[in-house]
Amino acid sequence: MLKLENLSVAVNGRQILHDVNLHIKPGEVHVLFGPNGTGKSTLIGAIMGFARYKITDGKIYFNGQEITNLSVDERARRGLGVMIQRPPTLRGLSVREIVHICGKNDVDVELLADKTNMLEFLDRGVNDGFSGGEIKRSELLQLMAQQPDLLMLDEPESGVDIENIAVVGEAANYILERGSKKKGKSIKKCRTNRHKSGLIITHTGHILEYVPADMAHVMYNGTLSCSGNPQEMLSCIHQKGYEECINCAE
Ligand code: ADP
Ligand code: MG
After folding, report:
1. Beta carbon of 16 within 6 Å of any ligand 1 atom
2. Cα angle vertex 206, ends 179, 23, to 5°?
3. Is pTM, for the whole model, over 0.85?
4. Does 222 sit in the ligand 1 pocket, CB within 6 Å?
5. 107 lines ligand 1 (CB under 6 A)
């Protein structure tokens, strides 16, 4: 689904990512841990093709084709979808209109808005005066309409209250076409039909209670330092911090 080969990225002339290699197969969800300022958002921005992230070396492949130099809109058309940390306010464009744009004409806006608790926001400007949690739900509503093959979420639980974390988790599962998983209940394994993939940045790991992940990576100083089981790595980070976690892997 996604393959990064020796990806190096600079922002404003400063090298942020060095030699990142990552392989996400169809149906897999990977999580990315790492301290603040280490380059996690830069990685997602570079994969999506945002202009400020300059790829100085390496290649990005999506569904077997190189996309390193494609425009953002072309990447979105091919099936890359992203929820960034701080999306802009778009006054004059309503949530209803942007959901139609994301999902073409046959999208059932009301149904998707109901799933994301966004019915009362449909005729407001995108993110205009929205709280942190409302912005996340609005972004997920757009992604549900877009139906990307690769879903990238940048700290989806930040600014979201406990009740709405479940809404965020369920929406992510809907986009990934995975069965609903209520907190604490067992996960149905039906891997054979899975096709959609995910890359999720999380500090707290709360989202993992709703969206089970297959693999975790720690990013440290702009490189992927180690990879492993998501729950084991999360508890290691909680107990020992990032530096110890990486030393342990070494
Ligand atoms: P993370 O998501 O892991 O917290 P980021 O990818 O947002 O980290 O940032 C990585 C580094 O890149 C940080 O040191 C940040 O200050 C820097 N950076 C991000 N955007 C810019 C920018 N527009 N100009 C200069 N430096 C930037
Ligand atoms: Mg970030």
Report:
1. yes
2. 70
3. yes
4. no
5. no
CB of 10 shorter than 6 A to ligand 1: no
Distances (CA, A) of 204 to 43, 66, 156: 19, 33, 10
Spatial distance between the Cα atoms of 99 and 112, rounded to a whole number of angstroms: 9
CA–CA dist 131, 168 (Å, integer): 14
**Mean pLDDT of successive 10-residue stretches along the chain, which has 250 residues:** 98 97 97 95 97 97 97 96 94 96 88 94 96 93 96 92 87 86 47 80 89 94 92 89 73
pLDDT at 3: 98
Cα 168 to ligand 2 centre (Å): 18
Distance separating alpha carbons of residues 14 and 79, to the nearest angstrom: 29
Task: Give the C-alpha distances (Å, rounded to integers) separating 148 from 48, 85, 131, 229.
Answer: 12, 18, 25, 25
Domains and CATH numbers, the chain: 2-249 (3.40.50.300)
Ligand nearest to the backbone CA of 154: 2
Residue nearest atom 19 of ligand 1, based on CA coordinates: 11
> How remote is the CA of residue 119 from the centroid of ligand 1, in Å?
34
Q: Which residue has the tokens 């425009």?
A: 71
Surrounding residues of ion ligand 2, Cβ less than 5 A: 40-41
Rounded Cα gap, residues 124 and 90, in angstroms: 10
Q: Is 37 in the pocket of ligand 1 (CB under 6 A)?
A: yes
pLDDT at 161: 86
